[in-house]
Structure formats: C-alpha cells, structure tokens
Design a protein that fits this description.
Strand content: 15-25%
Number of strands: 11
Number of helices: 7
Order of helices and strands: EHEHEHEEEHEHEEEHEH
Oligomer: single chain
Largest sheet: 5 strands, parallel
CATH architecture: Alpha-Beta Barrel
C-alpha cells in the first residue's frame, strides 16, 4: 500500500496552508506557480497544493479536473519546486471516499504520481440509495447521521492526512442541538482513534451568511463544533481552502482567533 508523506502540523498555523485549488477544477483560478508567488509574498513556509481529484468513473466531473490533466498537474508541482526552492511545496489531492476508488488513490495518486498526501473530504454522502450533496443536503436528523457515518468511514480508510471541513453540514443544519453535538462527538472520537487531524476551514467566511435560530452566522466554520473539538483534545489544523492565489491565507487569522477565544 502506498503511503502519504508524514506532515508536521506543529508550529504557527499560518506558516503553512495545505488546502489550495488550481484552475483545473473548473471553479478556481491560478496555477501552482501563482500560488507559490503568493505564498512567498505573505511569508508562508509550506504550501500544499490539493486540487479536487478526478475520479475514474467521471463522477461529479463539473467540479474537478479530468483524468487527462493528472500528469500536467503533477508536472506543474515539480516545476514549481524547481523554481521556488525557498518554499516547501507539497503535492496533494482532495478526495471523496468510495471503496472502489482505493486502488486509484493508492496506485495512481500516491503510487505512480508520487503525491505527498491526500485530503479526505465529504461533499457527497450516501443517503437512501443515492448520493446527497452536503450543501443544502443536511437538514434532518437522519441526514445528519448519514453524513457523520460517511465522515467516519472516510477516516477509517487510513488514506487521508486530514479531514477537510468536517463541519460542512452546518451550511444547512441550523441548530447546535443534541443530535449535532452527538454527531460531532462521534467525529471527534474517530479522529482521535485513527489519529487524523480535523481541518478548521476558513473558506466559509468568504461565503454567504446563513439564517440560524440564533441569528446570522457563517456557513462554517461553526464555533460550537470547534469549541467542542478543543474540549475533546482533537488535533486541529487551519487552512484557507484557497480557490485563488489572492486567498492564500485569507481569514486564517480569524480561524486562529476563533480557537483562541473558544
């Protein structure tokens, strides 16, 4: 089994950003060179490129690169490492989990391409025989528990260096109640058991606000979720999920402030 590179998550959180996207995913702009320049301008020491992986069956192709772009993506990262030796550039992919993708992730992404790491990311989860989008798709207790189960199953694979935006369900599940607290606890327990850090993803600050019962709030990050995560002793990392070089560290300081004040 191919393995991901061991990543040092210690140190000042804004010294590194491990969640970024290039133009290849069809909803971002800029290439690796553009991100490397932006990273150096703001003093980053580690830049992780992690565009949305293509999938062997072509699923969800409107929001990810095509299979034919994989080699070009890997080449762009190699060239950037050559051109910016003063910056540590890690090569990664953001991945949806399905058991049938394991051989592709291990053999092609970590093996043939030699990527440094994979991010586990649940944008879609199985619900009543179909794939449900987490955006606007988690409104009931049943949906919330199905989402939580898929986040945990993603961690159990051992493939992923961290889990992106585990509180993404907060974009449509409006109340921090007994059920959301229970599901969060289940995610925290799995993260600790499998030693998988959770990502406080600040890109939610760049999106529309949602009307929750206690007033307007960001879609995510969700403060009660991260307060509970800290209380449970979960390893937390902060990333900007940049879809443009200009957002290379956007709102990461706000994420740090949230953790400092919870």
């Amino acid at each position: 089994m191919a393995e991901t590179t061991s990543i040092d998550f210690s140190g000042t959180m804004i010294e590194k950003n491990l969640h970024t996207h290039t133009f290849r995913c069809k909803h971002a702009d800029g290439d690796v060179t553009d991100y490397a320049k932006a990273a150096l301008e703001v003093g980053l020491k580690v830049l992780g490129m992690s565009d949305h992986t293509p999938l062997p069956d072509g699923r969800w192709s409107t929001v990810r690169m095509g299979m034919e772009e994989l080699d070009d993506y890997a080449c762009a990262m190699r060239n950037a490492r050559r051109d910016f030796p003063e910056l540590k550039i890690l090569s990664g992919m953001e991945c949806e989990w399905m058991p049938e993708y394991r051989s592709f992730y291990e053999g092609d992404l970590l093996g043939r391409l030699g990527l440094d790491y994979l991010i586990g990311s649940v944008h879609y989860f199985p619900f009543k025989g179909e794939w449900r989008n987490v955006i606007d798709g988690v409104r009931t207790r049943e949906e919330l528990f199905s989402y939580t189960e898929w986040v945990i199953r993603t961690m159990e694979t051992g493939l992923f260096s961290f889990i992106a935006h585990p509180d993404l369900f907060a974009n449509s599940y409006m109340e921090w109640d007994e059920d959301s607290a229970h599901c969060a606890k289940s995610i925290f327990d799995a993260a600790k058991l499998h030693k998988v850090p959770l990502e406080l993803n600040v890109s939610g600050y760049r999106k529309r606000l949602v009307h929750a019962k206690d007033g307007l709030r960001p879609m995510y990050p969700w403060k009660p979720f991260w307060k509970a995560a800290q209380n449970e002793g979960v390893e937390i990392i902060i990333n900007s999920d940049a879809h443009s070089p200009k957002d290379i560290v956007a709102y990461m300081d706000r994420g740090q402030e949230m953790l400092a004040t919870t």
